[in-house]
Amino acid sequence: MLVVGLTGGIASGKSTVSRLIQERHHIPLIDLDLLARQVVEPGTTTLIALVKAFGAEILQPDGTLNRPALGRIAFGDESKRKELNKITHSAIRKRMVWLLIGYWLRGTRIVVVDTPLLVEAGLWKWCGEAVLVWCSAEDQLKRMLLRDTDKGLTEEDARSRLAAQWDLNKKKNYADVVLDNSKPLRPHEAASNPGTKDEDSLEEQVQRLVARWRRQTASVTGVAKWLVAWLVPPVGLLMGYLFAKRREWEFSVRLRTAGEDAKAE
Ligand SMILES: CC(C)(COP(=O)(O)OP(=O)(O)OC[C@H]1O[C@@H](n2cnc3c(N)ncnc32)[C@H](O)[C@@H]1O)[C@@H](O)C(=O)NCCC(=O)NCCS
Ligand SMILES: Nc1ncnc2c1ncn2[C@@H]1O[C@H](COP(=O)(O)OP(=O)(O)OP(=O)(O)O)[C@@H](O)[C@H]1O
User: Fold this and answer.
1) Whole-model pTM?
2) Best mutation site among 7, 16, 23 for ligand 2, i.e. most ligand atoms within 8 A of its Cβ?
3) Ligand 1 site, CB within 6 A
4) Which domain of life is it from (predicted)?
5) Region label for 183, one of left (φ > 0), alpha (ψ between -120 and 50) or beta (otherwise)
6) Is the minimum distance from the CB of 8 to ligand 2 under 6 angstroms?
7) C-alpha 256 to ligand 1 mean position (Å)
8) Closest residue by CA, ligand 2 atom 12
9) Does ligand 2 come within 6 angstroms of the Cβ of 10?
10) How far apart are CA 119 and CA 130, in angstroms?
11) Top-level class of domain 1-28+110-218
């Protein structure tokens, strides 16, 4: 099974790409932002742990999580954010692994995992391919404000959310594929933009990417690997482990060349 890690920064266009992959190309998708919401539903041990760590002011009167309030605490202070990650990430990963196992049992060929923290949390090594949805920090800020101002997001909130994540140029070093989302979304919009071609639009880039995944997984070696991993799970696990180790080594060479530190959070 080809597990693709899809990442980017806040408001860089991950959900837009996810929607295209899921709805237009019918590839299953695991959204870690969504799992992050499920693990903090009322009554969960994760929500209880969060209240213990950050106080009852992170709850709404009805007992659900007050997301903007927790966001303000976590995005404004690195140590608080680390604490939040420590509490939530293991529960999110557990859910993700169960979902992956489910897809694998059903014989799925390609699954996309959408997560903003693919690089920061070190998940990139465990993916067959890491895809980064890139745009400039100015575009991220502009798009975030356009999207979220009516949900109460101020420019200060937006800047602190942006500062809470790695710069997207730094994340490029960890990506196998970079989707340039500084251009228009659709081909016809690209045509009316001076200096931009139809094939530069996000939709066309995603179309080409998915076509390659399909060719790759339908090739003789792709099918043979998938079949062996599916029929003999221990061999599949070993193949996955060796692949991750090779990937870690290849990227550490690449990162050293780029002057980056391979260690994530
Ligand atoms: C702090 C919370 C409550 C704020 O909720 P809110 O609804 O306002 O934002 P939402 O969850 O939609 O996240 C919006 C974006 O913020 C960024 N973000 C979220 N969590 C983090 C984090 N821990 N570190 C850096 N950026 C983050 C991501 O780009 C995400 O797409 C929420 O983001 C959360 O529970 N975060 C911890 C879990 C987590 O790390 N999720 C990311 C996927 S693993
Ligand atoms: N190429 C583009 N041109 C203009 N607007 C865009 C483009 N791509 C995405 N957008 C808009 O930018 C906003 C952010 O995109 P999206 O929600 O896909 O980002 P995201 O990376 O999933 O964000 P988050 O991490 O906050 O969930 C949305 O309102 C989306 O419609």
Assistant:
1) 0.88
2) 16
3) 10, 32-33, 36, 67-68, 70-71, 74, 81, 84-85, 88, 92, 115-117, 161, 164-165
4) Eukaryota
5) beta
6) yes
7) 30
8) 143
9) yes
10) 9
11) alpha beta
Q: Note the pLDDT tens digit of each residue in 27-36.
A: 999 999 999 9
The per-residue pLDDT for range 204-257, each reduced to its tens digit, is 999 999 999 999 988 888 788 888 878 888 888 888 888 888 888 888 887 787
Complex prediction ipTM = 0.92
- Tokens 């680390």 appear where? 82
CB 191 within 8 A of CB 2: no
Among the atoms of ligand 2, which is closest to the Cα of residue 133? 21
Q: Where are the domains of the chain?
A: 1-28+110-218, 34-107
What's the whole-number mean pLDDT along residues 38-55?
96
- Which ranges constitute the DSSP H helices of 150-232? 155-163, 168-171, 187-191, 202-218, 220-231
